[in-house]
Amino acid sequence: MIFFIKHTIQKNIMFSKNTIIKIFFLFAISFCNAQELDSLLLKSYDVLSDNVYKEDSLISFLSAKAYLLKAKINRDSLHIAYGFYYSNLKKVGPNLIIKDSLSLKINDSIIYYSKHLLKHKFFPSLSYSNKGDILYSKGNYKEALKNYLLAIKTSNFGDIYLHQLYHRVGIIKIIFSEPEEALILFKKIYKFNLSNKKVNLNDEHHLYTVFSLGDAYLKNKQLDSARYYYDLGYKRSLNIVDENFKYYFVLGKGISEYHSHNYIAAIDSISKSIPYLINYNDSPNIAYAYCFLGKSYSKLGQVDKAVFNLKKVDSIFNVIHDLHPDLRGTYTYLRKYYKKKKDPKNQLKYTNSLLKLDSIYYKNYNYINAEVYSKFEKKILMDEQKAIKYLLKKEKQRSYWGYIILIVSVFIIFLLSYLNFKKKKKILKISTELLNNSAFKINNEPSKEIVKTHFSEELKEELFKKISLFEKNKEYLNSDIKISTLSEKMNTNSRYLSILINNYMHKNFTQYINDLRITYVIDLLKNEKKYQNYTVNALSIECGFKSSESFSRTFKKKTGIYPSQFIAETYPKFMN
Hints:
By secondary structure, the chain is mostly helical. The protein has 28 helices and no strands. It has a domain of 119 residues: Orthogonal Bundle (Arc Repressor Mutant, subunit A), CATH 1.10.10.60. Helix 13 packs parallel to helix 15.
C-alpha cells in the first residue's frame, strides 16, 4: 500500500522543487545589473541569508545568487553549500519551475561541498533526504532508499526529523515486501511519538504513522492489530481540520476486512473511501481501492462488477505508469477472464499491460520476487502474447477475406435481386399486355402485300375460305395435324398450301399451327378460370402439343415468358 507516502513526500518535494538555479544563467541579465550584484556581494552572509526570506521576490532571488557567488569567490565550502541551498529555494516569476533533474544536480552539489563536514545540523543529510523524495516520486525506490539511509547516517537535525526518515524507509520496506522490517520501524516511530511531548498525537504526521503501523500489521497478516490501529487512527482523525482524512483509515479497514474474508464489509468501507480519494486526486490509493473492491466482488461471484472495477485500475496505470505490487493480480484476473470469454483482443491488451508493469517492477524495485516477477513467468507471458498476436493476425486475415466475400456476396445478391426484379417486371409487363391483347397478337390475317404465285386468284380465295373454316373449327388442336393431311382435306396439294401460308402469312406451316394453339390457350386462361389451375402438361395437351416441353418452349418463343410464369403472375387477377 502506498497510502499517505505521496502526501508526506510531496511536501518535501515542494521544498526542493521550488528551486531554480538555472535562472541564475537564464534571467540574471534581465533582473539585475553588474552594479546591483556588486553591491550585494559587499553584504555579509547573515544579511544575504536574511534577504533570501524577504517577501520581495527579486531581492530574495538576487540575494541567493549573491550568496552563492560570494561563497565561491571565498572558496568557503559550507557557505557554498548554503548558497546552493538558498538558490534551491528561490525562483522569480510564476512560470519558472525547476526540473527534477536540475534539482538533483543542485542537491548533489550541496552534498559535494558539505560531505566532509562532521555532523552538521543540516548538511548533507537534508540534501540526501530531498534526493530520496525526488527519486521516490519518480518510482526509483532503490536509489530513494539509498539516499534515505545516507540521510539517516549523516543526520544531526534532531529526533523528530530522524523518525521522519525512518518513516520513509518503512514505506519502501513495505513496497519491497519486507513487512517485518517495516513493522519494527513503525513501532519505533509510534513509541517515540507517544513519549515525545513535542509531538501532537492529533497531527497529520502522527496519523501517518498510525496508518503505516496498521498497514505493516496488515502486511504481516496480523489482522486484529491492523484493525485496531485503523480504528484508532479513524477516531483521532475526527479531531483534525481535514475531516475527510478519516477515509484513509476507512479504506485501510476495508482492505483488512477483505483479508478477513468479510467481503460485504470490505465493499462497504472501500466504497465510502473512493469519493474522497477521487476528490483528493490520489491516484495510487484510488487504484488500490478499485483493485480490492473488484477482488471483493469476485469473491462474492459478481464477476461483471469485479471486471468493471479492475479495469479502472488499468485506466489509472495507463496514466501514472506504476502500481503497487499488491495490485499485480488485477492483470492476472483480467487475462483469465477474457481468455475464458474467448476475447483474444482484450486478453492481449492485459497481457501487454502486465509485461509492461513487470518491466517497471524489474527496473525500480529492490528485488525480483518470484510472486511478482520471474524469468519463467515472463517467458510464459511472452509466449502467450506471441500466440495471441498470431491468432489475432489470422483472425484479421480471415476477417479481411470475410469482408471481401461478404462484399462480393452482397453484390451478387444485389445483382441477382436486381435481375430477378427486372425479370418479374418483364413478366408482369408481358402478362398484362397478353391480358389486354395489346402487345401479343398473333397475326393470322393474310397479308395484302402482292406476292407473285403460280395459282389463280380464284384458287387463292377458295383456299383462304377453307383456312378460315379450319381455324373456326379449331382443327389445329389435333396433335396429329400435318400439312399433307390438311392439304388433302382441302382438296389441294401441300405445295400450294405451303406457298399460301408462307407468302401471305409470312410463316411456315408449323409456326402457323403453333401460333393458333398459343392464341387459343391464352384465351382459355383469360376466359375460363378452371384452366388457371391446370398444370402446364395438361394445358399442352388441351391445345394440341404432344409434350409440355414443346408447349413451354413455343409459348416462351412467342410471348417472351413461360406459361408457368404467365399463370403465376396473372392468377390473382383471375381470382378477383
